[in-house]
Amino acid sequence: MDTFRLMNPLRLGGIPLGAALGAALLAATATTATAAVAVPPATAAPAPAPTALTALTTEEQRLSGPVPQEILRRGGFADAAPDFAAALARTRTLPQAQRLATAEGQRLWRRAVDRAQGRGPGPERAGDLSRDDDRPLYWARLGMTRALREWKPAFRLSGPQRAELTGRVERSSRGQDSVDLPAGEQVKRVLITGFDPFQLDADPRRSNPSGAAALALDGTTIDTPAGPARIEAAVFPVRWADFAEGTVERTLLPHFLPGPRRVDVFTTISQGRPGRFDVERTNGAWRGGYPDNANVSRTETVPVPPGVPTVHPQPQWTTTSLPYAAIAAAATGPFPVHDNTEVTEIPAGADEPVDRPDGPTPGSTARAGGGGDYLSNEIAYRATLLRDAVGLRVPGGHLHTPVLQFGQGNTDPATGTVTDPEFVRNRLAIVAQVRSVTAVAVAAGRTP
Length: 448
Hints:
The protein is α/β, with parallel strands linked by helices. It contains 15 helices and 14 strands. The chain has 2 domains: about 55-170, no CATH class; about 180-410 and about 415-445, Aminopeptidase, CATH 3.40.630.
């Protein structure tokens, strides 16, 4: 396997939801729940009792390591999970716990956004990690979901109910339920998305510049030649199951439907190749099997959750409507921006995959989009498929950032530090260029 494949799994692999869709998405979310503890038959109703503890997830197990604990401490988020656990211990009913899970998740998201944008407490409380760091949010969220999993409530709580509470923390602490695009014609409405850090077994110090960009830009207004643009952001997990259960569609659909707050531009963003940005021209309906943050692999056609607006039959390919030529031609920052047209397909009538430098051929079967066959390709496919299903005619697609790298002499996770000046400079430069690329996308408008 070549170095590129080892570094980058790209090539490895305001409007309420309708009742039917909401029910379908809620049911899908509940499929990850642990079954309720069985209660033996009795002649009298049993007294309320706490359920048994559920097993920690793979991600939550990593939380006890020295690197995550240092990031939490130095990022000023070490108190998030203990404070949440203490508040949980004071709840006496399921509705109380539901309100707490949502409110505390939203509080964590807002706290991370404020930190990234220079608001909130000073270094004595915010920690000495640079404010642009996305990692404290990631590890603090896992601390909160672990606290929910370990919680012994004073009332009976089923496995699906506990999972629903965890889902509330997940959605609200990622900004997925707080996207607030303005109405009116005076400002363009932009929605961007980022990802959690990933490949953490190889290096738990990793950050994801797409997540950092989401925190830095959420709720900001940028100036463009087409006028001001308001940016709202959300972050997604690096987990196959969440995508199959509809987390992308649940988040995006309210903002894709007709109305005064519908998006004017959307861009899903993830970390991609070393040293370059890529506007991905084509997205493929294929999961290539690379392990996610839960160490789970999936090799299959991208599954569309039930109840979600979609295109029938499911297409093998979707295409960007971002103004890719204008973005690639603009001087947006220190990194080159490529209009990436590569895909991997099985041609019609053939059995073996082939690489195509200029996009798919008619009737072919997807094996990798321009963004590969991992979750970055999948979020691009899902977002653009949803765009087509609801008839949304705006610029939208996927942007890959450069790989965020540590400085020379700090590349060994066994001996290196959790941050260094070059690491911070690289992340700040990537985030600044994401802002500039977004301004170009707004100004250039939709491609034919």
